[in-house]
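Note to self: keep these together.
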Amino acid sequence: MAETASQSRHPWKFFRAGGFDQVLLESGEDLLALAQLDKKLWSALSCPIKGIEFDQRTLQLIDSDADGHIRVPEVLAAVEWAGRNLSNHQVLITGAQGVPLSAISTATEEGQRLLNAARTVLVNLGKADADRITVEDTADNEAILSQTRFNGDGIITAASTDDEKLKGWIADIITCLEGAPDRSGVTGVSRAQVEQFSQEVSTWLAWNDEAFSGGAIRLPEGGREEAIQLWHTVKPKVEDFFLRCSMAAYDSRAATLMNSSDEILTALAPRNLTDAGEEIAGLPLATVTVQENLDLESGLNPAWRLLISQLRTIIIQPILGERSCLTAAEWSELKRAVQEYELWWGRKIETTTITLGTDRMRQWLTEEPDAKLLALIDQDLALQPAFEAIVEVERLTRYCRDLLPLANNFVSFRDFYTGHGKAIFQAGTLYLDGRSFELCITVNDVAKHAVLASLSRVYLAYCDCVRHGGTDKMTIAAAITDGDCDQLLVGRNGIFYDRQGQDWDATIVRIVDHPISIRQAFWAPYKRIFTTIGEQLQKMAAARSKAAEDKAAVGLMQTTLKKDAAKPAPPPFDVGKFAGIFAAIGLAVGALATAVASILTGFLKLPWWQMPLAVAGIILLISGPSILIAWFKLRQRNLGRLLDANGWAVNTRARINIPFGASLTTLARLPLGAALTMADPFAEKKRPWKSWLVLLIICIVVISAWRMGYIPLK
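Structure:
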């Protein structure tokens, strides 16, 4: 069961920010005592590795189960391991400058091994006199291990031996099996690859050296596939020739009939024989006789002469020896030999070692280098504990540098609420609409993120960000916590600066609407009223304009159709019609004046001290509901829901109150001491008729109120 805060033996310090109490981590002992801190007091219980601004290598080392999330037990295990191997725990606070060798504990075998490994690293880097080791010293494995013959990873390279023959075999194994990466960055070979290479060489040679009758094994290694293809191409034609000879021996009449007929030769005679390849190829392979002999040098069908020459060189000569003619008996012997050869070829062993050639593979069996290579691998593996300690040195330097910053963004949200630096979930700063927005987090799926993030009660602008012509892309959610949202529209462009200072083109793609500030809530009703009035006036003006255009178009058409007709006389002025219009206008003005006068009279009848209260009441009536709703929502703004939507497990209600929210969004202000010239050469010209018009309306209202008796003279 987790130990509660009251039961904890460590004297904790807390500070209040974001509406909740957060632990203050100021010493190495504070970090080491985290196991005693009640988990209910942790700001977060889990956070993803991706999408946060923190050293990814350190997070991978802490993420012991490699599930892509950092959890409380993993943080505690990292702190415990680092503390166990340090004699001075304050290095966990000051580790950004490196780990002093004197601070590495030698009380345990593990600590002694770490110290020896740290010294080995510094010696290999040419820093034998250094008294501390940094993350940068451990980051370049190639530089650390480039001077070592063995490094304990079970991979040997050409540098692992002085024997030129073994170096050659290592190169051959890498050529055939691609090799394995050594810690030094050079490609080498592993035990499994040496054993695989040896097995494949032995198996292939055993197949290649199989004994069978016919001597087919004497076919050259190169071009065996082509030889078999040639055999199946020529075999039917040669078989046809010997069968024709058998028919001639069977019946003397067939000797003439089995050869080309006079009609076929007569038909071919006048033609261009270069265009008659198929007809010529269909003729017998050679002159059919009762002797059943195929002359391999002369008398062959021109269409088959080249193929028969290749057959003689590639197949007949290796199997039967040199021949100028081929008898039926020799043909039968050749067929049996090739058939057996094909059966053997069908059992061919597929291996990449064949690229080395048979002679090179026979050297492997003769020299037996596999035992020597495996001995080198065993020698390398014997140093595995020492060189694994080098990797642990990297872990120690990274933990000493990064555990405190991680704790201040995981156990507490100190970095975020104190403003001493950006929190690890802050991706950068968005500049848009004359403001800068500091609370920007990366998002993978906008639709999925917005579902939970909308519960944060924070106004969010999701932006797609691109660099290098669109090859680099990311999406952010920017929290708008001060100012207004009048000009924040989908499609609006800004610039986003990431934590490395790189600028990205940012475009708003989605907005989650919530109140931004009390000031915005106060003016919102008036803006809506003026917007509505403006829209209605625009609609009325558009309707009047369209009506006028339609009337003008109809008049123009009528004029065109009646251009030859006499122009009718204009209608007489209708006094009654215009009198009615003027009466209606006067009635409307009078009603408006009466209403204004009534309000003004009632206001003027109030004692002077009640007049401000009346004005305040009217303002409260209009803006009050909007302000009240905004006040409640602004008090509910919650950082936790924003992070939860990104895969965090936030353990507290991390509020973003109004003053803190204002610090996350900076409005444009002139620098202190800046000189401002108020003369604007392009300012709109002021026209006094507006002021006179306002005064005239006030006078009319006052006179109307007096004539109606609302304003007594005495």
